Amino acid sequence: xxxxxxxxxxxxxxxxxxxxxxxxxxxxxxxxxxxxxxxxxxxxxxxxxxxxxxxxxxxxxxxxxxxxxxxxxxxxxxxxxxxxxxxxxxxxxxxxxxxxxxxxxxxxxxxxxxxxxxxxxxxxxxxxxxxxxxxxxxxxxxxxxxxxxxxxxxxxxxxxxxxxxxxxxxxxxxxxxxxxxxxxxxxxxxxxxxxxxxxxxxxxxxxxxxxxxxxxxxxxxxxxxxxxxxxxxxxxxxxxxxxxxxxxxxxxxxxxxxxxxxxxxxxxxxxxxxxxxxxxxxxxxxxxxxxxxxxxxxxxxxxxxxxxxxxxxxxxxxxxxxxxxxxxxxxxxxxxx
Amino acid sequence: xxxxxxxxxxxxxxxxxxxxxxxxxxxxxxxxxxxxxxxxxxxxxxxxxxxxxxxxxxxxxxxxxxxxxxxxxxxxxxxxxxxxxxxxxxxxxxxxxxxxxxxxxxxxxxxxxxxxxxxxxxxxxxxxxxxxxxxxxxxxxxxxxxxxxxxxxxxxxxxxxxxxxxxxxxxxxxxxxxxxxxxxxxxxxxxxxxxxxxxxxxxxxxxxxxxxxxxxxxxxxxxxxxxxxxxxxxxxxxxxxxxxxxxxxxxxxxxxxxxxxxxxxxxxxxxxxxxxxxxxxxxxxxxxxxxxxxxxxxxxxxxxxxxxxxxxxxxxxxxxxxxxxxxxxxxxxxxxxxxxxxxxxxxxxxxxxxxxxxxxxxxxx
Lengths: 337, 365
Hints:
Distance between the termini of chain A: 87 Å
Number of strands of chain B: 10
Number of helices of chain A: 12
Number of helices of chain B: 11
Distance between the termini of chain B: 64 Å
Helix content of chain A: 55-70%
Shape of chain B: globular
Number of domains of chain A: 2
Number of strands of chain A: 11
Shape of chain A: rod-shaped
Largest sheet of chain B: 10 strands, antiparallel, barrel
Order of helices and strands of chain A: EEEEEEEHHHHEHEEEHHHHHHH
Strand order of the largest sheet of chain A: 4-3-2-1-7-6-5
Oligomer: heterodimer
Structural class of chain B: alpha+beta
C-alpha cells in the first residue's frame, strides 16, 4: 500500500489514492472507485532529490508518489531500472570524472585540435570569401585610421618593384602590397585574410634601408602563406562559442577576456612561424635574416620612446601578449642562421 | 391567453470564498543540478552537439519538476527528437542569414524578406511548443495565439520600434506580453493580461533615467580627465600624475560595468512584477514581488562566483536565480484549482522554439 496523489488527466482535481501491485497489474485504489493498469505500461519519471516521482499511464492519467522503499520494490517488480544517464547523474564519482574528461578534451582541443581544424578549414575556404572579408576590412580602415600613402610614387615603386624581384621559394602566389599613411598607428605592417599586405609609411621611414623593409614584408608573406589571418578568425570564433556555452549563462562579458587570452597563445605561434618563413626567404635571396632582427629592435626602440614603461607592462601582461618578446624573436632568428 | 415563459429564477450567488495565497516554491539544489549539467555537457561534446536536445529536455524537466505550487509540481514533456529537428532547421536558417549577403545583395535581401515572413510564425510555434509540453496536476498548458496577431506583434512591432527610434518599444512590448499571456491556457481555462502600455512606459522611462545618471557620471569623469590633461597647470606640480590618470580611467570603466550590471536586474525585476501582477488565470491572479536590489546582488555574486571558479559555479548560479525568481511569485486562488478541466488535445512541433532561441529572441518571463 503506497500513498499517492492521482490525477485523471481530464481535470486538475487531485485525489488521494493508494497503489498496490497485483501480479502483473497495478491497482490504484481511489475513494469509491478503483483502476487496474498493466504494470508494464506505467512510465516513471527520473528520481529527483526533494521532489515526488510521477507515474504516467497511457491514457494521460498520472500519479505523484513520494520516494519510499515500497515504491522502489514496486518499480523493481515492474522490471523498471534507472537509465544509464540517470545513474551517471546520481554518482559524484562519475560526474567528477566527466568534469575531468571535459577538462582534458578542452586542453587537447585547444592545443592540438583547434589549430589543425582551423588550418584545414582555412585552406579550403573559397578565396572569394577571404577577398570579401579583406576588402571590407580595408575599406573600414580607410575610413578610420588610414590615409593614402604620402610617399612619392617613385619611392613607392622602388619598394614594390624591389620586393617583387625577390624569390619566394615557398609560395608563388601574387604579391599584393598596399601602401598607406597610418598616422597614429605608427610604424607597422599587417596582412589581411586574403594575403594582401598593408605597409604603413612610418615603417618605411623608420627603416635604415630597403632590405629592412623587405625583411618585414617577407615576415608578412609568411603570414599570408600560412593563412594566419583566416586561421586566427576561425580560432577566435570557435573559442568564443565554446566559452559562451561554458559561462555565457552567467554573463556574456565573462566570455570576452578569456577569449583574448587564449587567442594570444596561437598568435605568438603565428609570429614565430612568420619569422622563420621570413628568415628562409631572405636567405634564398642572399639577405641576412639579421636584417629582420635589426628592424624588430628599431620597432621596439620606437615603442619604448613613445610609451615609456610600455615594454615593462607588456612583459608583465605575459599570457595576454600577442607577440613573442623581441629578444625571444631575435634569438630565434639567430638560430636560423 | 398565451402563456409567457418566465426565465427561471437565478440561483442565489454562491458565497465567494476568501482568496487563498499559494506561494510558489523551488526545491532544486546546485549540487544536484551540477551533476545533471556536467553529464549533459560531456555527452553533448562527445556526440558533437546531437545530445544537446536531450540535455535541454533534462534541464527543463529539472527546473519544472522542482517548481511547486499548492502542493503539486510542474512537469515538462518535450520530445528530444522534435527539439533536435528544430535545432537543425534553426542552424540552417542562421547560416543562410549570415552568409546570404556574401553571395549577393539580391540574395541577401530575399533572405531577409523570407526571415521576416518566417520568424513570426516560428516564434508563435515556439510559444505553442513550450506551453503545450508543460503540465501541472496532470493537465497541459496551451497557447492559442493567431498567426496574423503574431505578424502584428513581431513584424509591425519590430519595425515600429526601430522607425520610432525605440520610442514605441514599450508599447509593442506590452502588445507582445498581451499576445503571449492573453492567449495562454491552462486546460480549458484562459489566462488574462491587463497591464497597460502606460505601465510599460513607466518601467522604461525609469531605466532611461538610470542610464542617464550613469552616463552623466562617466561624462563628468571624462571631462575632468580631459581638462586635467589639456591644462597641465591645473595640478600642483604642473602635470597630472599617472595615478590620477589611472584612477579616472578605472572610474569610467567601473561605472560602465556598474551600468550593465544594474540595468539587467532592474528591467528583469520590474518587468516580471508588472507582467505577473497583471496576469490572471480564470478567477485566480498572480502576485510577483521581485526586488531589483536582491536580483542585482544575485547577479553580482553569481558573476563573481563564476569568475573565481572558472565557470564551474554556473549550475549553482542558475539554481539560485531560478529559486529567487520562482519564489517571488504567488498565486492568489479564488476558489479551488480543482475545477480546471482539460482542453482539446493538439499536436505541435519544436521548430519555432529552437529557431527563436538561436536568433537570440528572448521570450522568457
